[in-house]
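Lab notebook, bench 4. Still working through the backlog of constructs that have no structural model yet. Next entry is a single chain of 508 residues. Request: give me the structure tokens for it.
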Amino acid sequence: MPDHPLPPPRVAIATLRTVHPRILAGLTILVLFIANGLAVLWVAARPSPIHIAFANTLSGAVEPVGAEILKAAGLYVDEVNRSGGVDGHPIVLDRFDDLGTPDGARANVQAIADGPALAVFGHLLSPTSLAAGPGYRAAHIPALSSQALADALTVDNPFYFRAQTPNSQQAQWLAYYIQDVLLGGCGQLPGNTRLDLVTSNDAYGLSYAGGFVPVLGGRSPKTWTLNVDPKALAASAQATADALAREPEPRIIVIGVSLDSSPALVKAIRRRGIHAMLVLSVAGGDGYLANFADEPEERITPGFFTSNLYTTASVIFDTVGSPGQQFAESYTAATGKPPSQVSDGANDAMRIMTEALRRAHPANTAQSKARDREKIRDALASIDSPEHGVLGLDGPLYFNPNRDMPRSLRFGSFDRGRLVSAPIQIVAVQNPALIDLGKEIAAGRIVTIGDRFFWLQRVVYAGINIAHLGGIDIKARTFNADVYVWLRYGGDDDAPTHICSGAQSKCG
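Model written out:
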């Protein structure tokens, strides 16, 4: 212990002076001023968001489809933003409802042009896209549709792109599928099966007939035209169904009508007692069946409208690869619903739009808006080959010189509420130079559609039936099982039985 006590501390609580209230208030204001200043500086330092105009149908008869597009595109935007956005800028989707009408689409163009959006994501339907297209071209705003199919959309409009194969080429693809698969050597239907074709009295129907009919040559279909004006649609659908009812069977009825108008015709045809195969040019996916769910015939006899109903799609999820399956899981987890080709197309289109933003490096200021829009248009145009493409959910994505996207299609049918793949598909040959095309075509394994080559591909479903389960050892994590592995596919190939015994595998 020291000889003398320790000196008192230099500053003791008891010796603190009282601060005058006015000084304390001034200090408080100063602290708040500094804090607010730092907050302003922090906000100012943050990269400003990149705005994309989401111009789509968010009300009306096809509102659920527009909502599906918004959700699928938004999922990818969220993923990009979590990873830091584009050059640090988060992406924001500004919603513009086109009401599902041409007038509604045109009415939004000026607001989009005057606003901060650097590009347009839309529209859903061909009529709305065609109505807004000239306005986007005049304002030099690049636009990308994930669904609109009418050929005229990208003609003479260097600012419009689409993440789909155009209407006439899809019609051409279907004509070849019917000719080579359903009625050809694969023998899916009797050789005397007739073809009937119904197209709409608009740009969509005109381009569809232009692609479908020339392929068939001597098997040209008998055709009807559906008036899709909303005021005339119901009466025209009934008159068309009455005319079709007078035609002989067996036959395939192809419906080259857009997504919003075809349900009325399907209902009229089935109520007229026609049970022939109906092939829709576009249906989207499982959600199309909601058009019939509340009809009394469908409630009494499930499948009344949808039995023997087929369609083409850019993707059918029972045969899509790993990226597509991962997207399906995330989409279902987020929405509680399975995805369709609509959500697949929207997700793919947003991947393309995001890649264009990355390549363009927009300055994203009010002064650079016009230049940024031009740079994004040029960046979209640079996605012009598999080598320069974007990896999509089911393969590479890129534009052809017409700013359309060459994609393989799938053919499927509605079965117990789901769109499922048909037993035989035709899939694009990715590298024709590596294949003896003459040999493969002669063998019937490759067909040509226009200037492109496609494999005839069989869909094989596989499963396991457990016959016996025993010898379960929890500690060793082993068991004994007798199982049958089954394969289901189209064709008459023999699948010999193989017996494998003694195979062991730990579980867990």
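Notes after review: DSSP finds 13 helices and 19 strands in the chain. The two ends are 69 Å apart (CA to CA). Flag for follow-up if needed.
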